[in-house]
Structure formats: C-alpha cells, structure tokens
Amino acid sequence: MPATENAAVPDNLLEPSASADPYPVLRALRDADPVHWSEPHRAWLLTRYDDVSAAFQNKAFSSDRVRPLLAARAGRPEQPSTAVLGLMSSWMVVSDPPAHTRLRKLAAGAFKGQGIARMDGMITRIVDEHIDGFLRGSGPQDLIEHIAYPLPTTVIATMLGAAPEDRDRFREWSDELALVAFGAGGTARADRHERALRGLREMDAYIRELIAKRRTDPGEDMLSALMAHDGDADHLSDDELVAMCALLLFAGHETTTNSIANSILALLRRPDELDRLRQEPGLIGPAVEELLRFDGPIKVLIRWVVAETEVGGRTISPGERVHLVLAAANRDPAKFTDPDSLDLERGPNPHLAFGKGIHACIGAQLARMETRIAVSRILARMPELALAGDPQWKVSLASRAMAALPVTHGARRTS
Ligand code: HEM
Question: Using one digit for the tens of pLDDT, what is the confidence trace for 274-321?
Fold first, then answer.
C-alpha cells in the first residue's frame, strides 16, 4: 500500500461541498501534495498540469479496464451487466494499443469524411428548434432539460442517419447505457438493470437494422462511412459497429450537455464577460476554449497502472489506480496566468479538457462546434436570460455536472 503522507489534506472529491465547488480542494491538493495517495478514492490524484499532461504519454498507465473485468467473470453465472461489458469491451476509450490503434483509425476516417466544418447549418437548426420550445414556456425553466440535454443526441442520431422520428429514442438509450455502464460494479438496483437492458437490446436491434439498410443502400451518413471498409480485410464487424455507435452516442452526450450548461452558468455569474461576448460575438471561439478550461465537463480521467513508474518523486506500482484530475491541471498557476479568472481572450490556451495523446477526444471538433453554436444562439435569442436559483451539482467523481440549471428568459422574444 502506498505511503500516505500529507494525510491531513482534504482529498475526498465526492464530498458534497467538493462537488458544488471542487476548485478550493484541488488548489490545496496541488499546493500541498501534487502527487497524492487518496485513501477515500484508493487512487493517486495527479493535480499538476505537467504531471497530468505527461501521464497521457506514459505507457505504464493503461485505459484497458473492461476486458479484465469480463475475463474475471468467465465461467461464473451471467449477470445482466455482463452483456453491457461485452458491448463496452470493444470501445476504443477503454482499449490500449494495438486494439485501440485499429478502432481509432477506422473511426477517425469516418469522422473526417463527415466534414464537421460544414455541419453548422444542421446544428444551428437543431439548436434553434430547442430554443423555440424553451421560449414558448415562461417563468423558471431548466435550460439543461430543454436545450443542453437533448441537443447532442439529436445531432449524433442525425449524423448516424437515423430517421427524424427515431431521434428521441437515442436519448433514452444513452441514459440507459449510462445507468448500466456506471452501475456495472453492481450498485444499481436489479430491476433498473433489467429495464435498462431491455432498452439496450432495442438499441442493438435498431442499429443492426440500420446496418442492414446501409449495406444495400449506403448514404452520406457516418454509419455508412464506418462501414466503408466492409469488403476489406480489416473492417468493423457488426458487433463492433453497434458498439462504436453506442460509444459515439454515450461519449458525446453528457459531456456536450455539460459543456453547454457549465458555459452558460459561468457567463451568467460574470455579467461583464457575458455582456462582452454579446457585444463581440466573434470572440466565441477563444471564449469556448476558455470556458472548457475554466469549468469543463470532465473533472477526472482514470488510468490503471501496469508497470512501475515515478511521478513527482513518488513511486507508483502496478495494480494501483491513478486519477488524472483535469479540473486541477486546467487551473494550475504554473501553466495559466490568473487561472481562477475567466479570460475570454486567453491565448494560448493549451487546456486538457479533451485529454491528450492517443485517446484525445475524437469528437472535439464536433463538441466545440455544438458548444459555440448553442452558447451563441442562447445569448443572441435570450437577451434577458437570468439565473432563477442556485444550481444543484451532481455528486460525481468524473463529471462536472449540474442536475438542473434553472433560468428565466424574460419577456422579450427574439427570433
Ligand atoms: C465538450 C464535450 C466533450 C468533452 C469535454 C470530451 C472529452 C473527452 C476526453 C477528455 C477524452 C479522453 C478520454 C481518455 O483519455 O480516457 C475523450 C475521448 C473520446 N471522446 Fe470526447 N468529449 C466531448 C465530446 C465528444 C463527442 C461529441 C464525441 C462523439 C460524438 C466524443 C467521442 C469521444 C470518443 C469516441 C473518445 C475516445 C477516443 C479514444 O479513446 O481514442 N466526445 N473525450
């Protein structure tokens, strides 16, 4: 067991106060013990920018966490979550090379072919439809429920080529996947598992049907692009195609929702910056990078140690777990001047909100575009947008996520 020096530093990121505002705890950890063994988490917490950045390139840190779980269950009675682990086992995000290299290459080609830069019209239309619905309501309403939450799944379902009438089902499947994926350790109630699994079987059948259609009638959509290597020696099997669609839906949903919601909250709490962005909409590019640095959607990424390594003078041993604390690295004063201020023109801004290295977010360009368009349209169409209460933060290690963002949009409506 690792030595526990500096045990007095508060290091439980799951305390409700640390969920509401993790930054004071992270600052204290970075100052007092930047490579810290946390008993509550049974993991090392890396909080310095340089250490987190280097960890992305360190081969002693593995992302492969599902295959070992699945292997440990071999020969035991099947649990409901085993099916989900099976699906997740071919997700690139939980794979190491060479499996990762192959999956990433096949997916990257499909992303490139989609011409994300040309999608602004489609995304603006979807954002505006959701804002229209929001503006029809009055009084305090939840911006997450009505705009930030439905947007990413509608966009990815559209990109995958789902029919418009089916797009809402993608949102349900994404939630069901989250329920089982996060409950895979066995904490979720069995009946919730059963319900979630029914939904996932539905998703599996739906995507297989879509695959069969595209095989006879390929389109311009991303599923067709993922199937472009169908006849080649190295192509995605149907199981891998289903898993890839599920990953794209899952990885891009909560993250993009929180990117939009956290951005709007940060701006509403800083009226000067909010006014500035309204006056100078051309600032939206650097502003979104800064908002992702300042309060990005992912607080922590997890790695498993597969070889002895040293970080900041501490020896980290095989079998241990490491938490790369992006939220701390992105506010490290050794890297960012005045890191706790929101500076919409900050540049350069080498934040780690999308990770780095071989697993760096493959959807970053799409996520940036969705966030830019959503924030711009919300500010432009709701000139009287105001907070209607304190948001509640979810207690979560990995995500920086609000349960709801209650706002009012005032009386004026802008088209
Ligand atoms: C603001 C929104 C987003 C943020 C902050 C974000 C962040 C990240 C981060 C930090 C990673 C690295 C994970 C690791 O190293 O373990 C990652 C990977 C990934 N992201 Fe995103 N993401 C966002 C949106 C999206 C979207 C929209 C998609 C797809 C539609 C997506 C798909 C993926 C995939 C497939 C990976 C795995 C890449 C690999 O393992 O090679 N993400 N994302």
Answer: 999 999 999 999 999 999 999 999 999 999 999 999 999 999 999 999
Q: Which two tokens stand for residue 326?
A: 């992006």
Confidence of residue 63 (pLDDT cuts 50, 70, 90): very high
C-beta separation of 181 from 250 below 8 A: yes
> How do residues 13-32 score in pLDDT, each as one tens digit?
999 999 999 999 999 999 99
**CA 107 to centroid of ligand 1, rounded, Å:** 12
Ligand 1 pocket, Cβ-based, cut-off 6 angstroms: 63, 92-93, 104, 156, 247-248, 251-252, 255-256, 259, 296-298, 301, 353-355, 359, 361-363, 366-367
CA nearest neighbour of 3 among 323, 309, 325, 317: 317
Q: Spell out the domains of the chain, with CATH numbers in brackets.
A: 16-408 (1.10.630.10)
CA 390 / ligand 1 centre spacing (Å): 29
